[in-house]
C-alpha cells in the first residue's frame, strides 16, 4: 500500500477551509477526511469546495482570490468514499506543488487509490464503486382496479446497484391474500402471485429516492365458489408498470423502505363456467403501498 512519508515541517502544512455544497459528501464527512490526511482546517489560503451531482461530485480547490488550482469530477454513490477521494487528491496536490519536505502527511492511501501509480496519476484518478448487492422485504395493501378491492400483500426481492451508471436492477416477487370478486352466484376466489424485473435510477443522499419501471408475469389460481365441484383453474398475464422507492438509514447497514407502484395486466383473467359463460373478471391494474426494510445497495447517509 502506498504511504506518503512523514517530515518534520508541520508548520508548513497549508490551512484550508472546507465547503460541501450538497449532501454527498456531507460537510462532516469532508472535514473528517481532510483532517485524516494531515491537513489543517481553519485557514483561508485555500478553499476545498465540493458540489454534489447526480452521478457523484465535483471538487474545486480554490485560492484566497478565487483562482482555481484543481477541478476534478468523481463518479460514485458512496458519500464517504467521495470525501476520502477528494482529500487524497488535495493531499497529493500539496505534496507535488509544495514539495515532499513541506507537508506532513502520515496516513496511507485508501485501497481504492493506493495502487494507482504516481502521485500525478492519483490526483487525476476517478474513483468508482463496484456494484452492490441488495435485498428487501415489505408488507402493505394492494388495490385492484376497477373492482376496488383491497387485500394485504407481501413482497420479497433483491438486486444489484451499479453506481457508476447509475442504475439499479432488481427481481421482486409478491403474493397477496386471496380475494373474492363478484356476487352470488358468481363469486370467484382469486389468489395471485407475481414476479417482476425492475430497473431504476437511484438518487442518493440523506434520503434515497429511486423511480423504477418494471416488466414481469402474474399467475392466478381461480376457483368458482358457487359452482358445485368446480375445478381450480390457473391463468397468467404479462405485467408492465412503474413506481418509486424511498429509503432511509436505520442502523448497521439496514434501511427503512417505502415502495409504491402500479402495474397493468395485459389481459384480465376470468373463470369460465359451461354453459353459462365467464364470471369473476380479474383486475386490470393493481397498485400497492409497501413498507418494510432493505439491506445493502447504494449507501444512504
Q: Secondary-structure blueprint of this entry?
A:
Layout: E1 15-21, H1 27-36, E2 40-41, E3 46-53, E4 56-63, E5 68-75, H2 79-98, H3 111-114, H4 119-124, E6 132-145, E7 149-162, E8 167-176, E9 179-181, E10 188-200, E11 208-224, E12 233-251, E13 254-265, E14 271-273, E15 277-279, E16 285-296
Parallel strand pairs: 1-2, 1-3
Antiparallel strand pairs: 3-4, 4-5, 6-7, 6-16, 7-8, 8-10, 9-10, 10-11, 11-12, 12-13, 13-16, 14-15
Structure at a glance:
13% of the residues lie in helices and 51% in strands. The protein has 301 residues and is mainly beta.
Structure in words:
The chain is mostly beta strands and 301 residues long. It folds into 2 domains: 10-124, Double Stranded RNA Binding Domain (2-Layer Sandwich), CATH 3.30.160; 132-296, Porin, CATH 2.40.160.20. 13% of the residues lie in helices and 51% in strands. The protein has 4 helices and 16 strands. The strands form 3 sheets. An 8-stranded antiparallel barrel has the order 6-7-8-10-11-12-13-16. A 5-stranded mixed β-sheet has the order 2-1-3-4-5, covered by helices on one side. A hairpin with a 2-residue loop joins strand 12 (233-251) and strand 13. Helix 1 (27-36) packs across helix 2. The chain starts with 14 loop residues before the first strand and ends in a 5-residue tail after the last strand. The model is unreliable at 1-11 and 99-129 (pLDDT under 50).
Backbone structural class: mainly beta
CATH topology type of the largest domain: Porin
Q: Strand sequence of the main sheet, in spatial order?
A: 6-7-8-10-11-12-13-16
Give the proportion of residues in helices.
10-25%
Indicate the mean pLDDT.
79
Q: What is the level-2 CATH architecture name of the largest domain?
A: Beta Barrel
Amino acid at each position: 500500500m502506498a504511504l506518503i512519508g512523514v517530515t518534520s515541517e508541520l508548520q508548513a502544512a497549508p490551512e484550508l477551509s472546507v465547503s460541501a455544497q450538497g449532501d454527498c459528501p456531507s460537510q462532516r464527512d469532508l472535514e473528517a477526511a481532510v483532517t485524516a490526511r494531515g491537513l489543517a482546517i481553519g485557514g483561508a489560503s485555500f478553499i476545498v469546495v465540493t458540489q454534489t451531482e447526480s452521478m457523484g461530485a465535483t471538487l474545486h480547490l480554490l485560492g484566497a482570490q478565487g483562482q482555481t488550482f484543481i477541478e476534478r469530477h468523481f463518479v460514485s454513490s458512496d458519500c464517504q468514499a467521495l470525501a476520502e477521494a477528494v482529500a487524497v487528491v488535495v493531499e497529493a496536490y500539496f505534496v507535488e506543488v509544495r514539495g515532499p519536505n513541506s507537508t506532513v502527511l502520515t496516513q496511507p492511501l485508501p485501497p481504492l487509490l493506493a495502487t494507482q501509480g504516481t502521485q500525478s496519476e492519483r490526483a487525476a484518478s476517478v474513483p468508482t464503486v463496484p456494484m452492490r448487492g441488495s435485498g428487501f422485504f415489505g408488507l402493505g395493501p394492494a388495490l385492484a382496479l376497477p373492482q376496488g378491492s383491497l387485500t394485504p400483500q407481501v413482497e420479497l426481492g433483491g438486486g444489484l446497484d451499479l453506481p457508476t451508471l447509475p442504475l439499479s436492477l432488481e427481481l421482486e416477487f409478491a403474493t397477496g391474500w386471496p380475494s373474492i370478486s363478484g356476487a352470488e352466484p358468481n363469486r370467484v376466489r382469486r389468489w395471485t402471485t407475481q414476479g417482476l424485473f425492475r430497473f431504476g435510477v437511484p438518487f442518493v443522499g440523506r434520503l434515497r429516492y429511486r423511480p423504477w419501471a418494471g416488466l414481469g408475469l402474474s399467475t392466478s389460481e381461480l376457483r368458482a365458489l358457487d359452482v358445485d365441484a368446480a375445478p381450480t383453474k390457473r391463468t397468467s398475464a404479462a405485467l408492465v408498470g412503474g413506481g418509486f422507492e424511498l429509503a432511509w438509514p436505520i442502523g448497521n447497514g439496514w434501511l427503512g423502505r417505502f415502495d409504491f407502484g402500479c402495474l397493468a395486466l395485459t389481459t384480465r383473467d376470468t373463470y369460465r363456467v359451461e354453459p353459462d359463460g365467464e364470471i369473476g373478471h380479474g383486475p386490470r391494474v393493481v397498485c400497492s403501498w409497501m413498507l418494510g426494510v432493505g439491506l445493502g445497495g447504494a449507501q444512504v447517509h
